[in-house]
Amino acid sequence: MTGWLVTGAGGMLGRDLVDVLSGLGQDVTGLRREDLDVTDAAAVRALILRVRPAVVVNCAAWTAVDDAEAHEDEALLVNGRGAENVAAACAASRSQLVHVSTDYVFRGDGFAPYAEYDCTAPRTAYGRTKLAGEQAVLRLLPETGYVVRTAWLYGVHGSNFVRTMTGLAGRQPYVDVVVDQRGQPTWTVDVADQIVALARAAPGAGVYHATSSGEATWYELAVEVFRLLGADPARVRATTTAAFPRPAPRPAYSVLGHDRLAAAGVKPIGDWRTALSRAWPVLTAAAGTQRRGGGSRAAQPRGMS
Ligand SMILES: NC(=O)c1ccc[n+]([C@@H]2O[C@H](COP(=O)([O-])OP(=O)(O)OC[C@H]3O[C@@H](n4cnc5c(N)ncnc54)[C@H](OP(=O)(O)O)[C@@H]3O)[C@@H](O)[C@H]2O)c1
Q: Ligand 1 in contact with 152 (CB < 6 A)?
């Protein structure tokens, strides 16, 4: 058994993970939704048993947080049943599984970083469906299943907050951004690196947290994006969550602790500002960034997690 298999390989994280693995010279099969629908248990089992990868990384997910409120069953099919299908196939093929999950499994009203073993209490349909996926993986793969929770992702391949701010900075004089939600802005490439390092280290199975360290509000992240763009950070105005009602409530505090990855010897991603500076040349090269502009509208985080 050799190589890696990545599901959801057309998504923001999946695409970077496939690139990272390819760059490392690894044998990697990236499967987009059209190649493998994780809700199709028979197809998942047949494919994984045929390929027999050493490691499967499940990046496939229903990630539309607000839509999940009105479509929880459909979200559960992908995030719960889909994860279960992948885990069951990995059990049959004796593949290691890294399943990607989210800070939204927590209640999100804490005051200190959530540890890997802290009680989960999702407040959204999305969070509940992601928790169901975690539980299936841990139940079916008690020795070889890894749940990697991440949060506040940005990267070149999907719609995300950093990209949105970059676009708005070029179009609007001001953006209004929430100042009462805290988290850890995290580059998809850094998560991909952590996933690779974790699978290689193969420590005890279970839950791991992979985010940048430090913490920021969406407002602070927007200010940092404006600063990196050479735009006036005063054009970012602080507002509150109450000004942006959304179908799914957003966590006020979504900071994760990384003790288990550290104990496994995996180098931490490091501070979110430093990580964003490292990512910046890659992000701007990909986006062909506009550096100046006008317009006026409020902005809010996509709030995806
Ligand atoms: N983005 C964040 O801020 C964030 C934060 C915390 C955790 N996460 C987690 O990180 C992981 C990756 O997220 P992402 O940001 O890369 O999301 P993404 O860009 O939405 O990628 C998810 C991918 O899964 C695919 N997919 C959906 N249903 C599928 C199915 N039934 N079978 C196979 N593939 C399916 C999607 O395909 P289509 O586009 O064709 O639907 C998409 O390519 C997810 O587990 C997510 O919960 C993300």
A: yes
79 lines ligand 1 (CB under 6 A): no
Is the CB of 55 within 6 Å of ligand 1? Answer: no
Cβ contact 61:79 at 8 Å: yes
Which tokens in the block code for residue 140? 């079916």
Q: At what angle do helices 188-201 and 12-23 cross, to 10 degrees?
A: 60
CA of 288 to the centre of ligand 1 (A): 24
Distance CA(128)–CA(117), nearest Å, equals: 17
Amino acid letter at 145? G
* pLDDT tens digits, one per residue of 17-29: 999 999 999 999 9
- CB burial readout 239-251, b (16+ within 10 A) else e: bebeebeeebbbb
Ligand 1 neighbourhood includes 33 CB (under 6 angstroms): yes
Tell me the C-alpha distance between 282 and 301, whole Å. 21
User: What is d(CA 282, CA 285) in angstroms, rounded to the nearest whole number?
Assistant: 5
Question: Strand 153-154 to strand 186-187: parallel, antiparallel, or no bridges (unpaired)?
Answer: parallel
Its pTM surpasses 0.85: yes
The Å distance, Cα 84 to ligand 1 centre, comes to 16
Mutate to test the pocket of ligand 1, among 33, 124, 126 (most ligand atoms within 8 A of CB): 33
Q: Whose CA is nearest to atom 18 of ligand 1?
A: 11
Rounded CA separation 230/168 (Å): 14
Whether the pLDDT of residue 128 is over 90: the answer is yes
Interatomic CA distance for residues 19 and 58, integer angstroms: 15
